[in-house]
Design brief:
Helices cover about 30% and strands about 20% of the residues. By secondary structure, it is of the alpha/beta class. It has three domains: about 160 residues, Adenylosuccinate Synthetase, Chain A, domain 1 (3-Layer(aba) Sandwich), CATH 3.40.440; about 90 residues, Orthogonal Bundle (Adenylosuccinate Synthetase, subunit A, domain 2), CATH 1.10.300.10; about 160 residues, Adenylosuccinate Synthetase, Chain A, domain 3 (Alpha-Beta Complex), CATH 3.90.170.10. The chain has a ten-stranded mixed beta sheet with strand order 9-7-5-2-10-1-11-15-19-20, sandwiched between helices. Strands 14, 16, 17 and 18 form a four-stranded mixed beta sheet that branches. Strands 3-4 form a two-stranded antiparallel sheet. It starts with a strand and ends with a strand. The relative contact order is 0.15. The protein binds guanosine-5'-diphosphate, 6-O-phosphoryl inosine monophosphate and magnesium ion. The site of magnesium ion (MG) has 6 residues, from loops.
């Protein structure tokens, strides 16, 4: 029996989709526990690329069952499109996808409010998928959940109540047009018809599966530094991507979780606004973006790129409890003569003892680097650790030692077979 949490260890887009796909060959169940269609998890099967936003990346292995946990916020349109797309590509969904009754629904006003917030002075650079406003309603105890779809009278009442309030806000505060209640009610009733067969009591099913000795992967979205509690607040998402969120977002208690694996990109990227101490603004950053194809899987935005930050990673390791890591995109560094790794932060000549999550402080740190020789060799066909150039091995050993985790997987390309297991 193994219940493993897969967490993004940096600012998202570490390659979680690829690693979950690789590992799910050996697991029976994959569960998404937070976030929503802000996520974009890429999996390559042969030459076919899949970008998953809501459905767990285990869906591409036909024997794997996939669950969307209560911690996820579900956009009906995005979910139906994803199901349709996958079915069109020959992936079976019926009988393999299960959705928690307690998951919250993204409503049209959430997306609208997301875009209104982003046009104001407190811009975060969100994905515009309505994530923040949906979680706001969840915690304000006004949200509409999957379970509400099951009784259309309750659904109608809840939508009416919410829209009355939102229309007031839209009209009086934001000077926007009012929303059409009837059209929205109709849309969500249609959605219910489409997803009714998938709705399940997820905590009970998952805990029974654990009792039966089944193995489960918990697939996080985003990354630790985007966590609303532990990330670079306010430049974060509105959920808990860190490993603690795997319990609250699925109903699997902490005592049943056996390990936490961190997905770690061999350098650093970030999309959207917020501090990024090791960001490379010149030619080297451009080179990482180009070779690494660093453009958002959800929004297409260019990702900001920079050197590996071991100081950040040791913080991420601590708050997630990462024991083992999968290092991704090592191949992207093949082109550099020298590769830098940030090992500490300084402010006014004084080394910081711990990672600052106060953005004002983080904006003012000076990263302290150590430089390692590059390997200048193509890694994309290497499948055995021993065949890696010694400089690449030294780099891996250096980042693992400075960050405090063991490495168990090394990814040298987006494809399934471009993977080295230790
Ligand atoms: P996720 O959100 O963490 O699942 O990551 P994304 O899918 O948003 O971004 C990772 C990108 O890197 C995708 O385009 C993957 O196909 C690609 N990728 C994953 N692993 C590797 C790797 O080892 N090398 C290279 N070159 N690309 C990779
Ligand atoms: P995956 O799962 C990278 C970022 C956005 C923005 C901030 C808040 O593919 O790694 P939101 O729409 O969540 O309110 O935006 O979080 N962000 C991501 N960055 N990968 C993601 O997901 C992200 N999901 C959200 O760019 O800075
Ligand atoms: Mg992504």
């Amino acid at each position: 029996m193994s219940v493993t949490v897969i967490v993004g260890s940096q600012w998202g887009d570490e390659g979680k989709g690829k690693i979950v796909d690789i590992l799910s060959e050996r697991y029976e169940i994959v569960v998404r526990y937070q976030g929503g269609a802000n996520a974009g998890h890429t999996v390559l099967v042969g030459d076919q690329q899949f970008i998953l936003h809501l459905i767990p990346s285990g869906i591409l292995r036909e024997n794997v069952l996939c669950f969307i946990g209560n911690g996820v916020v579900i956009d009906p349109k995005a979910l139906l499109e994803e199901i349709k797309l996958l079915e069109g590509l020959g992936i079976s969904i019926a009988g393999r996808l299960f959705i928690s009754q307690n998951a919250h629904l993204i409503m049209p006003y959430h997306k609208l409010l997301d875009s209104i917030n982003e046009s104001g002075n407190s811009k975060i650079g969100t994905t515009g998928r309505g994530i923040g406003p949906c979680y706001i309603d969840k915690y304000a105890r006004k949200g509409i959940r999957i379970v509400d779809l099951l009784d259309h009278k309750v659904l109608e009442e809840k939508i009416k109540l919410n829209i009355e309030e939102k229309n007031n806000l839209l009209k009086k505060v934001y000077n926007q047009e009012e929303l059409n209640v009837d059209a929205i009610i109709k849309e969500y009733i249609e959605f219910d018809k489409a997803i009714d067969p998938y709705i399940t009591d997820v905590p009970t099913v998952l805990n029974n599966a654990i009792e039966e000795g089944k193995s489960i992967l918990l697939e996080g979205a985003q990354g630790a530094l985007l966590d609303v509690d532990f990330g670079t607040y306010p430049f974060v998402t509105s959920s808990n991507p860190t490993s603690g969120g795997a319990s609250t977002g699925s109903g699997i208690p902490p005592t049943k979780i056996s390990s936490v694996m961190g997905i770690v990109k061999a350098y650093t990227t970030r999309v959207g606004l917020g501090p990024f101490p090791t960001e490379l603004l010149g030619e080297e950053g451009e080179r990482l973006r180009k070779i690494g194809a660093e453009y958002g899987a959800t929004t297409g935005r260019p990702r900001r790129c920079g050197w590996f930050d071991a100081f950040l990673l040791s913080y991420s390791r601590m708050i997630n409890g990462i024991e083992r890591a999968a290092i991704t995109k090592l191949d992207v560094l093949s082109n550099f003569d020298q590769i830098k790794v940030c090992v500490a932060y300084e402010i006014q000549g004084k080394k910081l003892k711990s990672f600052p999550t106060d953005v004002n402080k983080l904006m003012n740190v000076t990263p302290i680097y150590e430089s390692l020789p590059g390997w200048k060799t193509d890694l994309t066909n290497i499948t055995n650790y021993n065949e890696l150039p010694s400089e690449a091995k030294d780099y891996l050993q250096f980042i693992s030692q400075k960050s405090g985790f063991e490495i168990s997987i090394i990814s040298v390309g987006p494809k399934r077979d471009q993977t080295i297991e230790l």
